Amino acid sequence: MGDDGLTDDQAAERLAHHLLREAYHDLAAVLLSANAKAAESLFYAVEKRTAEALQTIVADRAEGTASTRIARTVGAELNALFECAHGRTGIPASQRVA
User: Fold this and answer.
1) Which residues contact 29 (CB under 8 A, 6 or more apart)?
2) What's this model's pTM, rounded to 2 decimal places?
3) Measured between alpha carbons, how far is 58 from 67 in angstroms, rounded to an integer?
4) Where are the alpha helices (DSSP H) in 35-96?
5) Rounded mean pLDDT for each run of 10 residues along the chain, 98 residues in total
């Protein structure tokens, strides 16, 4: 019974992640078309906050011994999302961690 709940939780998490990723892409596209300069400023702030959050996870060891690996994995995934949604490349969040 516990395994079934975990599987349902994982499926729900995957679905939520997918929907949020799609919404972020849509939002980024609208922002870029409405005001590219403001969008770039907002994207920079989001990327910076993401990198800072991942650095904090590593520094605080918030996820235990796997903190650095987890932060780098998350950073790489988010960097791919940002590159696609923002249409640009920068210093990947995964490389700014630890």
Assistant:
1) 85
2) 0.75
3) 5
4) 36-60, 67-86
5) 71 93 94 92 92 95 95 92 77 49
